């Protein structure tokens, strides 16, 4: 049981209506127990397509996990396809029905509708994993040493099913070998230049280590994956290879353990007992959200403000009206004053501010769409940056800018060690 | 040219390291010009796998779009696979090289590295679409009436290539028939109950109309898709069928045109000239970010505050210390006072507040993880709700709660019409 294939079933993914986040979650969880996802099929809700894809999937890997197509409504056909593929029939499962009844009673919907009762019908050969956060159960089928799990499509239901039931089951049933991963974050150097500098190092990597480049914004993440039987040997191998990178590009490395920039920041701030606050205009809360999405952020994030209307920047953050009049609200000067006001309002060592035009509507004062000024203030020092990203849509703009600010702050903090 | 297949190439997707958002974007853009995505393959960066998948893809549809595997680094093999599959060779393309040079000069990297020069090598039979936001060009191959486009994997590069070049090209080259979609948002009614109520309506839908259920949080989105030759006929058909839903479930329908809840809110607020502000604790900026991610939100969103530390709730929002001491900071009473303080701070008609424990760390005052109180204040009326979502991880919790609040506000506004 080393290789898995995922099948995402649902027209809502193919039509672009929904982003498939389940595959990402499942792939990560499987990787942690040494199972590699070799391929993902995203297909429509049709019995023949589902059956054909199950066939293709089992030719690639011995473990197949499907998500989607198990709801109580008319467009869900996975269960039928599953029974036909495994030459089985669907019948009412008493345990599942009891679970469903008690699930619905707890939610004050004790009249079990016929349509919901259908959800307790499963292939007779299946092993059922009960769903504690929804009405569609997870069904496992086993045949000739191959395994399939069929899950509903709702991420809130998929996550606990995978984490609490499927992963422990697989871990327990198979003796799995280990995969260890480390990610090195490199900033301030283009991917191609980096690749040139570390080429010899890459070519000399041990055979059981693999390297990938993952550019994200202006950061390049180097992912090193090691596989083998002894976890502690793998960890040591990774550490040794990463140490060899420092003489080559050490000054550009901002992290070697954590992957997410908000976690990297969180570790730095916690370690150095620093506090932070944010004053956002064009990022609209995204920056604060990124910082607070790290668990434990209440230790260092004291607060944020989004003074969207210009007069709120003046009233709450004490930005001077004169500065606004003279330089416009999207300016280096306003960003600076916002950061200063923010630092005072929340009484923090560090403060971050943004002012810009996310678009697509025209900005005030004729500033071009995609322009943003941001200030990073640490103690009584500040530094203001300008970005111009006209090709990004509103959502990506807010996200890119927030990520860049956190990344720049991390670079600054790392260098004033 | 009615059907397309997408191929996402890259180990970073299969390993769970990156969420594939390109497929979603491309599928949406294709849908708008009447091209349906039939399947998405997500595969690893290996020449044989890429070639086999191109074969499978062209058996399903006449248009294949690949993303990923075109970077300047060692793990990118798409170009080779492409040339081999189309029985072609790779050679330096002068126009592409000139474009690359000027692209790099503009960014102050005029020494063209050998590795970057490689990016100007393309299959000789390909038509190149230049990339204005990165170094890897998009290559189109044409054979026996079938088309493939190969794009880089970075979303910031994919979006403009698709939107500004590929879509106009396809639109121009083929006489495409139309697909129209409308989404009806239904709240306050479980999916299975809804399905029962509208069953007869669904069965009576014209043959060229298809219905899908998309549950999202506590909302069910009904997606109606119509296909045919005359756009105005399709639009009328959709409108007629949607009108028939009102006698059945009218009081649960919150929108019939917009899809995203923040857009639905934006339209309501703009139409009624209402203003809004937010005071967030456990949602950490996500609520403000959702509201401001709607273009034009500066018309109604005046500002938000994230008083993360308890003393900031007291200082800035004038929550009484007595209330905090008596009921703890995660309480109905504090949520109410936060909303009131927020309304005053930003001088808005509507204010929203959240206080809760996102986890996974233990909450202050022993409140259980996953508990949140939120207040919706409209003029001098307020309503406070409690949610308990212990099974959600931190990120999903912040998102789910924010979405639910906006949804509840929309329901309230719709009903006080």
Q: Could you characterize the architecture of this molecule?
A:
Two copies of one chain form a homodimer. With 417 residues, the first copy, chain A, is of the alpha/beta class. Chain A has three domains: 3-173, 3-Layer(aba) Sandwich (Molybdenum Cofactor Biosythetic Enzyme, Chain A); 178-255, Alpha-Beta Plaits, CATH 3.30.70; 261-415, CinA-like (Maf protein, Alpha-Beta Complex), CATH 3.90.950. Helices cover 42% and strands 25% of the residues of chain A. Chain A has helices at residues 11-14, 22-32, 47-60, 78-85, 94-106, 114-117, 155-173, 191-197, 199-203, 231-249, 261-272, 286-292, 310-317, 321-327, 332-346, 394-415; strands spanning 3-9, 36-43, 63-67, 90-92, 121-123, 127-129, 138-143, 146-151, 178-187, 209-216, 219-228, 253-255, 276-280, 301-306, 350-356, 371-378, 381-388. Chain A has a six-stranded mixed beta sheet, with helices on both faces. In chain A, strands 14-13-15-16-17 form a five-stranded mixed beta sheet, with helices on both faces. In chain A, a hairpin with a 2-residue loop joins strand 10 and strand 11 (219-228). The radius of gyration of chain A is 26 Å and the shape is globular. The mean pLDDT of chain A is 90. The interface between A and B is large, with 106 and 106 residues. Strand 14 (301-306) of chain A pairs antiparallel with strand 14 of chain B. Chains A, B: It holds the Pfam family CinA. Chains A, B: Residues 5-173 form the MoaB/Mog domain. Chains A, B: It comes from Chryseobacterium piperi.
